Amino acid sequence: MKVAIVGVSGAVGQEFLRVLDEQNFPIDELLLFGSERSAGKTYTFRGKEYTVRHLQHNDDFKGVDFAFVSAGAGVSREFAETITKHGAVMIDNSSAFRMDEDVPLVVPEVNGEDAFDAPRGIIANPNCTTAIMVVALKPINDISPIKRVHVATYQAASGAGAVAMQELENQYAELAEGKEPTVEKFAYQLAYNLIPHIDVFLDNDYTKEEMKMYNETKKIMHAPNLEVSATCIRVPVMRAHSEAVWVETENPVSVDDARRAFENAEGLVVIDEPAAKKYPMPLDAAGKDPVYAGRLRKDLANPNGLTFWLVGDQIKKGAALNAVQIAQYMIAHPRN
Ligand code: 2RA
């Protein structure tokens, strides 16, 4: 396989290199692309050094099988044609094409088949919070269709990039030294704080992040009538997102049936022994592949309701791992 990574110097770009190696992805040739600023940098992959090329409108993508792209929506929009014109499958981590009718939005455990319906050669990777949540919605939805989802997210600094992770660390150090904390990547100090604001506010007083969960969940679950309401919060955690989820199903689903479904679900690991104080936590989930589920119980406010707690690594399942899994799904289920 000839593989390209666009945006290789970023947090997700670097994770693509790690995940492709961890997953033993079949690569005969690897091309790394970045901005003019990143061009010339070198990265090692499987013991070999690769130099970052400046991403330009040329024929560099000729012969590429999969291009993993995470360089922002603007770059994805500008270079989609250049990347796909020779037949490369562009798996795009940005929000650029997620809601386009002719671009599938894919979490392999939920709707892997959709990856083959990509007339533009573009497959969109969902927002990290959506990817983490739908892995757990799927097994419950298979028992009884979910009518309504409420979710509160507790999102790590990594969602705002490597610089934001460093800013959070610096803030604790600056405060420890009695200095004013540096606040650049977030609207306010994040250390010792929570910020109920991710991305921009829209006219309906939801943020773009919250509306991503609203729109993307419906598309991935093929459930246009599914009701979703999200509140997305930035929390002082480094790289794993947590989510408190409430679902209402058409028919009541018992906790035992839901737990069995979770335990048998792809990509999900259940950590749920409250009496033993065993539940998922971001510190434990950081750097790991699965989505972790726990605190499963009946929703006391809804006879057809269940509530549970999810934790998943934002850079892995929330981005790089899901994108590589899309390519793995396509390789494992070849279409003639
Ligand atoms: C965040 N989901 O967590 C957004 C973008 N990665 O900041």
Automatic annotation (TrEMBL):
Q: Which InterPro entries match?
A: Asp_semialdehyde_DH, Asp_semialdehyde_DH_beta, NAD(P)-bd_dom_sf, Semialdehyde_DH_NAD-bd, Semialdhyde_DH_dimer_dom
Q: Where does NADP(+) bind?
A: S9, G10, A11, V12, R37, S38, S158, G159, Q314
Q: Tell me if Lipid metabolism is a UniProt keyword of this record.
A: no
What pathway does the annotation place this protein in?
Answer: Amino-acid biosynthesis; L-methionine biosynthesis via de novo pathway; L-homoserine from L-aspartate: step 2/3; Amino-acid biosynthesis; L-threonine biosynthesis; L-threonine from L-aspartate: step 2/5; Amino-acid biosynthesis; L-lysine biosynthesis via DAP pathway; (S)-tetrahydrodipicolinate from L-aspartate: step 2/4
Which EC number applies? 1.2.1.11
Q: Does the keyword Hydrolase apply?
A: no
Top-level taxon of the source organism: Bacteria
- Coiled coil ranges (UniProt) are none
Q: Where does substrate bind?
A: Q155, R234
Which molecular function GO terms apply here? Answer: aspartate-semialdehyde dehydrogenase activity; NAD binding; NADP binding; protein dimerization activity
Annotated positions binding phosphate: R98
Subunit relationships:
Homodimer.
Function according to Swiss-Prot or TrEMBL:
Catalyzes the NADPH-dependent formation of L-aspartate-semialdehyde (L-ASA) by the reductive dephosphorylation of L-aspartyl-4-phosphate.
Q: Which family does it belong to?
A: Belongs to the aspartate-semialdehyde dehydrogenase family.
Full protein name: Aspartate-semialdehyde dehydrogenase
Lineage summary: Bacteria, Pseudomonadati, Bacteroidota, Bacteroidia, Bacteroidales
